[in-house]
Design a protein that fits this description.
The protein is an alpha/beta fold. The protein contains 28 helices and 13 strands. The longest helix has 21 residues.
């Protein structure tokens, strides 16, 4: 997409002003280039019913005076950008083109031929190939170069299909009415009418055999079958050991797979080999859900296999030890996680991939749950000796995240007693006012008179609220208020209840903040931070390896130029944050990063990390805040931005 079109679409997608820095990060150019493009755009827009207005200190905002004229202008821009022969015109399109080429071909290509074909330089092509190699490596596929022959793709047929499913098809929607059938039809050679008939076959067989699938799982099965058709038609079959096929043939899901395949073979006039039927059966094994009507939360033993229960208990104990998340008594979590893991183990054993369209949202919005999911994946690997990718981690995190939210509902931030000398009426007035103001944030254990204050269970409360002066020395703080409580009284109580700002201040200081550093890679950032932190903290000798180990499971770049690297489990003697902003964005996995927050958690700590992750989540989700932090040149200005976010 041309820059001017990208700018207009970005501006028209929001009602708030957007700074040149924010626009620059979206379209991957400099702020200066954005300003120049906007200047040229305004000249064009004069005749097309719109203008881009600049608001000092806020940014740019699109103003449309004539909607029809502006719409025609956008359409004309898009038409002008469409290449005459549908050749890819930007890095993303070229990478998609190369992925399609290598995944569907088994012969070699010469770099000069590809360069000429794509109308790009050899160096540009090499850059695109580097990105393609990274994507394919996740599926154990390698682009190999042979002198005088060129480059070709090596890897198993099954892994090719997984990569085709991941990178060449749109998974954002579910079902034949929502999946981009035109794209699927073009790439598989199956008409849209036939694709709809395949979908109907799946629905009928699943219903007839009482198999319950999630929408995403059903869509994965659908995509598996249409990709299998294309690959079988091209002469490429998957292989499976005969002993594995024999094991699968004994499962009832194999007979369902046979029925599905029999109907599809008649429809498409093609024969599916036995191994292909077995893999369809594995999809059913790997995605089958227990009927929710059979899931009784009070009878976990009848729903979850004993070995899965043991595995879950080990996961929950580890979460309590490493992250201080105590979910050991959450029967709803134990059941839901058990129902999820039982079919998932089949996917692990047969290396069946499952795509998680919610992955990025989970990582950004539930970072603590995602970290818990990673620890769960490590425990599963220790017990079952299987590697779990971040898509599956995301699904596990969903279950844990729901449990964390349930747990928060039952948690009371603070507990108190009310002391009042004016009788029951006045003490109840204070009690009802506090309950109305703070709801579940404050648990009032009772009310009492002044002469009975020594009978109060001080070991069960955090502070006293008293409408009379108390001269005695007590083991908890006393907040003195008026019987008719004022806003000032409520604010003073709030200081004891909502301690986020106070707690966050303890994690931010000048010696852990490094601004506008000229570092060009993730590795340089790690070495720089370790060099700065080593005199201040006792870091492990292999601390950088601990950071890289976490990155290998799932990159800690969350989008919006932010990365939050950290070891998988606590390794330091205290909890602290280290901030580092960069002069220029750097590559971090598949994202760009300019704001780094290194998180370290105290070993054997009982701290609640939810607060830390919630505020980090606010940063990740607020582009304007990230831009302000990146532009800070002093610690005081940096600290002011952070405090404004959490106050």
């Amino acid at each position: 997409m041309e820059r001017k079109t990208a700018i207009l679409i970005t501006l028209s997608s929001t009602e708030k002003p957007i700074t040149s820095s924010e626009l620059a990060s979206v379209i991957d150019v400099s702020s200066r280039t954005v300003r120049e493009e906007i200047k040229l755009l305004n000249e064009d827009l004069k005749a097309h019913g719109a203008s881009i207005q600049s608001q000092i200190g806020k940014g740019y905002q699109l103003a449309v005076q004539n909607a029809d004229a502006f719409k025609q202008y956008i359409q004309s821009l898009r038409s002008a950008e469409e290449p005459a022969v549908n050749l890819p015109s930007n890095p993303n399109e070229r990478q998609f083109y190369l992925l399609d080429l290598f995944l569907h071909s088994h012969h070699s290509f010469k770099l000069d031929d590809l360069s000429e074909q794509l109308h790009v330089s050899r160096s540009t092509l090499q850059t695109d190939l580097k990105a393609v190699r990274e994507k394919l490596r996740a599926y154990s596929l390698e682009i190999i170069s042979r002198p005088n022959y060129g480059i070709h793709l090596e890897g198993s047929e099954l892994n090719r299909r997984f990569a085709i499913s991941e990178y060449l098809f749109n998974h954002n929607e579910v079902g034949p009415n929502l999946v981009q059938l035109q794209q699927v039809s073009t790439m598989t050679g199956i008409s849209e009418n036939m694709l709809n008939k395949i979908w109907i076959i799946l629905l009928e067989q699943i219903a007839r055999n009482q198999i319950v699938l999630s929408d995403i799982s059903l869509n994965n099965l659908f995509m598996h079958i249409v990709i299998a058709f294309r690959r079988i038609q091209d002469g490429y079959n998957i292989n499976m050991f005969e002993r594995d096929i024999s094991d699968i043939k004994e499962q009832p899901e194999f007979f369902v797979a046979q029925k599905i395949v029999h109907q599809i073979e008649s429809l498409l006039q093609i024969d599916f080999p036995k191994a292909e039927i077995a893999y369809i059966a594995i999809h059913l094994l790997g995605t089958k859900l227990v009927d929710p009507s059979q899931s009784h939360m009070n009878n976990v033993q009848t729903v979850v296999d004993p070995e899965i229960q043991t595995l879950i208990q080990r996961i929950l104990r580890t979460l309590k030890e490493e992250l201080s998340i105590d979910l050991l008594q959450d029967q709803e979590l134990i059941t839901s996680l058990g129902l999820h893991l039982k079919p998932a183990i089949n996917r692990f054993r047969y290396q069946m991939n499952i795509r998680n369209p919610l992955l990025e949202d989970i990582k950004v919005n539930y970072p603590l749950a995602f970290e818990a999911g990673i620890i769960a994946a490590i425990v599963i690997n220790q017990v079952l000796s299987v590697d779990i990718d971040e898509n599956e981690v995301g699904y596990i995190a969903l279950h844990i995240g729901a449990a964390i939210e349930r747990n928060k509902e039952h948690q009371i931030s603070k507990r108190c007693y009310i002391v009042c000398a004016s009788g029951v009426g006045s003490s109840k007035l204070i009690q009802y006012k506090l309950q109305s103001e703070f709801k579940t944030e404050l648990d009032i254990l009772g009310t009492t008179e002044l002469y009975r204050i020594h009978e109060i269970p001080y070991d069960q409360i955090d502070f006293l609220i008293s409408a009379v002066p108390i001269t005695d020395t007590l083991p908890v703080p006393v907040i003195e208020v008026n019987t008719i409580m004022s806003r000032y009284d409520l604010l003073r109580i709030e200081q004891y209840i909502k301690t986020e700002q106070k707690e966050w201040k303890s994690f931010i200081d000048a010696e852990h903040t490094f601004l506008n550093r000229d570092l060009s890679s993730k590795e340089e950032v790690f070495h720089f931070l370790v060099e700065k932190l080593s005199p201040l903290h006792r870091l492990s000798d292999h601390y950088i390896s601990l950071l890289e180990e976490r990155e290998a499971i799932a990159p800690t770049a969350y989008g919006n130029l932010v990365a939050v690297p950290h070891p998988i489990t606590p390794h330091t003697e205290q909890t602290f944050l280290t901030f580092c902003t960069l002069a220029q964005p750097i590559e971090w996995g598949d994202k760009k990063v300019q704001f780094v927050c290194l998180l370290n958690v105290e070993k054997d700590s009982q701290e609640d990390l939810q607060l830390l992750y919630e505020v980090l989540g606010k940063i990740v989700n607020t582009p304007a805040v990230v831009q302000k932090l990146i532009q800070c040149t002093s610690y005081s200005s940096f600290n002011n931005v952070i405090q404004s976010l959490i106050s």
